[in-house]
Amino acid sequence: MESITQRLLTSGFGRPSGLLGRLGGRLMAHVSVNNLQLWPDVPAGLAELHRVLRPGGRILPAAHEKWLPTDLATLASTVLAAGFTSVRTRTWEPPTRMASTAALLTAVRECGARARSRR
Asked: Could you tell me the CATH number of the domain that includes residue 49?
């Protein structure tokens, strides 16, 4: 089964005519694991996620820290710039010696008047 992220990357992710073109404001959440480094344009991808998430919707990108396209603090700033709020980051040490440090980020598409004014 093809993952939603694979479809996003191959179907015009970030363009209104792409896979998510008609989903504006409908998704409740988006989880991505170990694939941010594959996004051709992270700010554009985050802007598209902001567009398709309903107010109060959440994103949770997670990846091994060494695979992030930038450091975690810069990624958090990019998420804020895309219009998300309540951005939180953390790292986690997986319980095996072979896995590297994991980076987690959560953010919310704002609700209320601020959400309406961004449309």
From this structure: 3.40.50.150
Task: Say what the pLDDT of residue 1 is.
Answer: 47
Question: Can you tell me the distance from the alpha carbon of 35 to that of 75, in angstroms, rounded to the nearest whole number?
Answer: 14
Distance CA 84, CA 23 (A): 18
Positions in the chain whose pLDDT score sits under 50: 1, 14-17, 113, 115-119
Compute the distance between CA of residue 79 and CA of residue 93 in angstroms, rounded to an integer: 23
CA 16, 62, 78, 35 torsion-angle sign: negative
Report the number of distinct structural domains present in the chain. 1
Give whole-number Cα distances, 20 to 9, 58, 74, 83, in Å: 11, 16, 26, 18
Is 9 a domain residue?
no
